Predict the 3D structure of the following.
Amino acid sequence: MKKNQFSLDESTDNYCVIGNPIAHSKSPRIHALFAEQTSQLLTYQAVLSQPDAFLSTVEAFRQAGGKGLNVTLPFKEQAWEYVNSSAARADRARAVNFIRFDEGGRIYGDSTDGIGLIRDLANNRIEIANKRILIIGAGGAVRSVLGNLIDEGPDEITIVNRTPAKARELIELFPEARGLLDIRSFDGLADGRYDLVINGASAGLAGHRLPLADGILAVGGCCYDMTYGKAADFFLDWAEANGAQKACDGLGMLLEQAAESFYLWRGIRPKTIKRNLIYQP
Ligand code: ATR
């Protein structure tokens, strides 16, 4: 039998994050810091799953006594199908990045990415209510946050995606917001219109540039990239060149979604630590 990618400490509660790739994950460091801050005893490790082995990896972790896990790319949709009970916000996103193994065999799933984004926008005093929002991308990352953005009461949300059919499919999942949602091509974005531009495309992760014209940001507009590090460089440079009042990468969102997961497992809400802490060895 194939050896498991994880080892559990039977004297404490064990958690993990499963993804592929996973070596880059900052989650073990973040949760270790949260545990230290809140005096919780637990372990949290990164687990690599082969693309076709997600379900067997999760099940092995559960049967070994794991208390819960986070799920990252490319398994969030599979995780939603795997859980046997889920939060409304996860059903809306059709994705789960949080799993908790409860008493009685219930496997509970939630999606904490959307609340992570909303909290980090608030931390950075970037407003959504009554604003004109442009979202770049229409994949899983955007689907995970769109419901939360709608709930914050923007004036409009325009979605621009390289493949327009995917943007159309996405907005059909949110019929309650039909009057609010608009789809544009990269060529059809309106000059000076958008108060907040959120990049949810994975182009930067592959080292690609977005075909984003200059001049579409409103005066005083802000920019937010849901990725971080090098992947966010192109978009944040574009934001600066276009006079963005604020421009943030998604590291704060990562911390906030982790804090929400920690709270759902442990019942204690950690303070979201200073972002530079997670770069320490
Ligand atoms: P994720 O889970 O990260 O959202 P995904 O579901 O594969 O991953 O979606 C990736 C998103 O980034 C899509 O909106 C994709 O556009 P397409 O629907 O046209 O594929 C977008 N994207 C990826 N590379 C891109 C590029 N080079 N230029 C523009 N958009 C890109």
Observations:
- The pocket of 2'-monophosphoadenosine-5'-diphosphate is lined by residues 73, 137-141, 161-163, 166, 201-203, 208, 210 (CB under 6 Å).
- DSSP finds nine helices and twelve strands in the chain.
